Amino acid sequence: MRTDTPQPVRLVDYKAPDFSIPDTELDFALAPETTRVTARLRMERQTAGVPLVLMGERLKLIRVAIDGRALEATEYQVTAETLTIANVPDAFVLETEVEINPSDNKTLEGLYMSSGRYCTQCEAEGFRKITYFLDRPDVLSRYRVRVEAPKAAFPHLLSNGNLIETGEAGDGRHFARWEDPFFKPCYLFALVAGELDVFEDSFTTMSGRKVDLRIFVDTGMAQRAAYAMDALKRSMKWDEEAYGREYDLDLFMIVAVRDFNFGAMENKGLNIFNASLLLADPATATDLDYERIESVVAHEYFHNWSGNRVTCRDWFQLCLKEGLTVYRDQGFSASQRGEATARIKDVRALRARQFPEDSGPLSHPVRPSSYVKIDNFYTATIYEKGAEIVGMLRTFVGAETYRKALDHYFAANDGTAATLEDFVASFSAVTGKDFASWLQWYVQAGTPRLHIRPEYDATAKTLTLHLRQQTLPTPGQPDKIALPIPIRFGLLTEDGKPMPFDGGKTEALHVFDTETAELVLHDVAGAPVLSALRHFSAPVILTIDEPVSHAFARVRGDADPFNRWEAAQGLARGLILDAKPDAAHVAAFAEALDACLNDDRLEPAFKALILALPTESDLAQMMNPIDPAFIHARRVALKAELSQRLSVTARTLYDQLDPPLTFSPDAGAAGRRSFRNALLDLILAGFAHSDDKPALTNLAEAHFARATNMTDMVGAIQALMHIQGLPYQRALDSFYLHFRNEPLVIDKWFALQAGCPHPETLKRVESLKTHPDFDARTPNRWRSLVQAFAGNQSVFHDPSGEGYAFLTEQILKVDTFNPMTAARLVEPLSRFRFYSEPYTGLMRKALETITATPKLSKNVAELAGKALEG
Ligand code: TRP
Ligand code: ZN
Asked: For position 4, what pLDDT does the model report?
């Protein structure tokens, strides 16, 4: 075990900074191993009588001066993480010169090199690897930056803000000077230098200003930026219309890089993207890629207001920018792709990633109260649950008041580093109401359980809803209080028609904020079916005391498409987790699906979603203790049975959905492709029991051979996974040969194989890790194998423990040079207590191996330690 346990940072210890830095001048003389960074910081004292303590890591200090006077070695003190100067005036200019080594920086944090280019990643605390600074988000400064490098190899020299000057610097070098007029925290600083192709366009803002838009990509790839550019312009327009937010600089740039720890970064005026979330064309990107590109481009752009103009006081407030920005990008995606399907996908993601996190040892409030490494808190809880809280506030106050509250928030906090209290205060300001109870959603961890028992009184024509809520204890929070839960609901007849109540209403909203309550509805003509939590109006686990026939009624006709899908998922969960499900229920479920598939009023995208059975990890959350092998076997069995029962419908619809000749990435076309691929998957799920295996093999192989886009190729390979053997291998081989020079597609090739739910996968993954194209130093490639594998429930949880051993080995390997990325894969091991034997003991052993490793990073140590503590 580690003994040098690092001290956590605590929210209650927050103190305003002792010094401010109104102006920052940076000069970069770029060289791969010896980059010189000169910083001139105009500083002003805010607290009397304290020394100046600057943060800095991995910096070689060359010179430090105050107001032009170089300091003697005795006048300052340098540690591995700080530079302290005991005596400084109240107002002064601090000059430092440091040397750094970008080419040796494999943490991908600070200034590093990717494909021969310089680039930066400063959020959360990477700026301190570039120069000595007050690296905290409440220190806002105006930046002027000069970048110098050899002209031939680094023709583009980019930083934040406006380009002021370019010129020759002798010796084949050139320079550029950039000025960002907006005050910003240092985590939004960015610099890129290198050879890049640019895709250009422009956007005229609502006040008539023309903004130049430039997307920089690998040479030869400019056309693959067209979709991202289109998404950017739509985002800019939408933010003006939906939030009244206008872009503020004359230039907006995005750079795509291949080596990146996360998805993308909102640096002021110079977003940096993981290339996998930016480049797209039909041959190499799936519809899911297009969808994610659209949403991430929007997300980073929206940060310009929610994050940059109004930033965070400290990192505990991270969800102030992330939760709000996710909520904003979800609204954008819904507007582009359809409310219902967008909501279903968001909830599916919330349940897949946030619910498990919130029920295990890594559970934390949306506003945590302490952390060791803030990098570990870029979690589904902060992003996705944070977004849900904003959504609940909007549901509660209504769309119009929500807009007023947000206008108030942006106006009142522009140019400042704000807190969640400031955000919630804007809702009070425009409504005059107290929102203190809503703030509790940020403070209390754990997913509330909501239980509803409906009771109908035929004589009084009333329906009483007996409501109960409970949140189980989470680490550090044994006692929970009741939270305000907005419940949007309606009533249905047994055949799924709307049933009015309370004098003709078809839908209502009730905010339930006590431990128990009774809600009485009047004028209810007959015994109704309850449709509660419509549009998933709160991030809770809902159970209703009702006969199974009610769920069927909602599948048949709930006016709320979300609840229609939800009811089908619930039925499927029941049928899978029941070792001997009622044959009549299986038949009825198949019939209900059949009706949906043949319902012309439903969109293909929705049909694809309703056909997708709950995932194995989704099902695991309903089982105690979890038996991954049982879940897998039962899910496969139900799918095979549905395949048989729906084979005629599936085949007819599949044949009707022949793809059009020209590709369009729009939501309608993508929906048809996803439905067609879902049908193919359903058909092939019957392979093992089929008496015409050659016909099914032909169908899947023809799908592959005739695919004209990446979505259909991937769909075919997934279908071939049901067949395995030669047909599967042939497709993989041909895919590899075809795309061997396309790194982003080879990532998919690794991920597809690692995600294949077949016992053979374990061996395959072992051999893929020695494949010449495997590279643990490139996070995209590493994740494509290791993350996809760790998410492959039945294979990862092999009773031999080999899956855990593989993950452990990989985490420890990557931890030696990129702790931030390594730590993100600790989570799959963390919930070991919920599993049955032998899984639980083997997972614990894997975690113990990790924590016993010498020189473990703080990142991995924090998460693995918490996981073992429970
Ligand atoms: N702020 C980024 C976003 O959500 C997230 C991010 C990108 C990030 N790179 C990072 C967070 C590196 C921590 C470290 O849009
Ligand atoms: Zn973000």
From this structure: 59
Q: Which of 119, 121, 262 to mutate to test the pocket of ligand 1 (most atoms within 8 A of CB)?
A: 262
Q: Is residue 782 part of a domain?
A: yes
For the segment 387-397, the average pLDDT, to the nearest whole number, is 99
- The total of structural domains in the chain comes to 5
Residue whose CA lies nearest to ligand 1 atom number 3: 265
Does 859 lie in the same domain as 777?
Answer: yes
Residues 145 and 17 occupy one common structural domain: yes
Q: Output the domain CATH number for residue 416.
A: 1.10.390.10
Ligand 1 pocket at CB < 6 A: 121, 123-124, 261-262, 264-266, 299-300, 322, 375, 378
C-alpha distance from residue 711 to each of 702, 704, 706, 717, 785 (Å): 14, 10, 12, 10, 19
Determine which residue's CA is closest to atom 15 belonging to ligand 1: 265
**CA-closest candidate to residue 213, choices 162, 265, 252:** 252
Ligand 2 centroid distance, CA of 191 (Å): 19
Question: Do residue 18 and residue 154 come from a single domain?
Answer: yes
Going from the Cα of 247 to the center of ligand 1, the distance in angstroms, rounded, reads 21
Active site residues: 300
Ligand 1 atom 11: residue of nearest CA: 123
Query: Whose CA is closest to 64, among 45, 80, 41?
Result: 41
Counting from 1 in the atom list of ligand 1, the atom nearest the Cα of 303 is: 15
- For residue 584, the domain's CATH number is 1.25.50.10
Instruction: Give me the pLDDT at residue 6, please.
Output: 84
Q: What is the pLDDT of residue 722?
A: 98
Q: Whole-angstrom Cα distance, residue 546 to residue 530?
A: 9
Per residue in 309-348, pLDDT tens? 999 999 999 999 999 999 999 999 999 999 999 999 999 9
Interval between CA 378 and ligand 1 midpoint (Å): 7
C-alpha of 311 from chain center: 20
- 822 shares a domain with 770: yes
Angle at 739 between CA 733 and CA 742, to 5 degrees: 145
Nearest-ligand number for the alpha carbon of 306: 2
Q: Are 186 and 316 contained in the same domain? A: no
Domain boundary among 166, 195, 224: 195
pLDDT tens digits, 746-764: 999 999 999 999 999 999 9
Do residues 74 and 189 share a domain? yes
pLDDT band (50, 70, 90) for residue 357:
very high
Task: Check residue 3 and give its pLDDT.
Answer: 45
Q: In the structure encoding, which two tokens stand for residue 395, read together? A: 């549901």
pLDDT digits (tens, 9 = 90+) for 195-241: 999 999 999 999 999 999 999 999 999 999 999 999 999 999 999 99
Q: What CATH number does the domain containing 59 carry?
A: 2.60.40.1730
Is there a single domain that holds both residue 489 and residue 573? no
The Cα 796–Cα 629 span in angstroms is 11
Atom of ligand 1 nearest to the CA of 307: 1
Residue with the nearest Cα to atom 7 of ligand 1?
Answer: 265
Say yes or no: 430 and 454 in one domain.
Answer: no
| Cα distance between residue 533 and residue 518, in whole Å | 16
Residue 730 covered by a domain? no
Binning the chain into helix, strand and coil, the percentages to the nearest 5 are: 45, 20, 35
Query: For residue 1, is pLDDT > 60?
Result: no
What is the rounded average pLDDT for all residues in the chain? 98
Boundary of a domain, candidates 388, 419, 443: 443
Q: What is the DSSP letter of 375?
A: G
Q: What distance in Å separates the CA atoms of residue 812 and residue 776, rounded to the nearest whole number?
A: 11
| Distance from the alpha carbon of residue 606 to the mean position of ligand 1, in angstroms | 31
**Residues spanned by the domain of 80:** 1-195
